[in-house]
Amino acid sequence: MTERHGAVRTRLWRDGSLIKEDFPFEDISDYIDEDGCLVWVDICDAAKQQLNELADELTLDPHAVEDSLSNVGRAKATRYATHTFLTAYATSLRPDDTLTHSDDEAGPEQTGPPDQRVVTTRVAAFILRHGIVTVRTGTEFDMDQVVQRWDDNSDLLKYGVGALVHGLLDVIVDGHFEAVQAIDDSIESLEDGLFDDTAISREVQRRTYQVRKDLVELRRVVLPMREVVNSVLRNRKDIGAPSELDSWYDDLYDHVLRASEWTESLRDMVTTIFETNLSLQDARLNTVMKKLTSWAAIIAVPTAVTGYFGQNVPYPGFAQEWGFLLSCVVIITMAGALYVGFKRRGWL
Questions:
Q1: Are residues 125 and 134 in contact, defined by beta-carbon separation less than 8 angstroms?
Q2: Predicted model pTM
């Protein structure tokens, strides 16, 4: 059975100008070593045989090829003899209405945790002297955004492969910012409803758990990007990034740091919301218990009085009208005194 090959997309620039697009996969080696040429190859859901053929043609390290096919692994940038291998995770956030678990649908048999909203896509890149090969797992990450970023900054392409690497990483980091911003908005929504007495505690707990789960997944891919971009900065001369691109890479590194710091601050915010929600639940429970106890004490007065006068034995006022009136006065006086006392203390 023949192994299915992944979808391939190619582009060729010469001296910063786009010359060819979607040329045959077999023609890659004809341009990759040509001075003045800049080649981009994108393979989506690559097959192992397909990458092995490309590795033989471009002298790619077999360990890097194996890593590019893996669905797990930490974001990193590794320098080899003939190329630099880079992996990163692009992120996107699914809307709430796509989740399978919700309080409106979940019944007694569906009480599981909420689904994860953060979607990650692993993107690997082989950075060569005159080109870059990107390998993706799945179609969640839209490479059209990267191509548009290259087209918007086409004047940078004359500086070589460093411009392609910057455009790719810049789009990935922008995706991290969008995901962090969406989680930040979710946290603000939780804060708005936290002190609402009409809010359902179970709903707040579910949403808080969901945000914490999304944030854990986001931290797993955002924090290692500092090492990736820092490694690219240290070895930017090896990947063909001249000094003209220094300011662009410095700005990229600043964005990575901001995304990392933002993610860490949101982690503290989620923890605070979770703890505050528990404290508010205890406070509301104490308020309910005080009210119940107060009303129980008030109700106990007529119960005690009527129980005493209801005994089948002679007592002052027994079978007399003034005895009945006396019992009513005692009940109203004592119950009213208790009500006023509890009201002043804020228990009712």
A1: yes
A2: 0.74
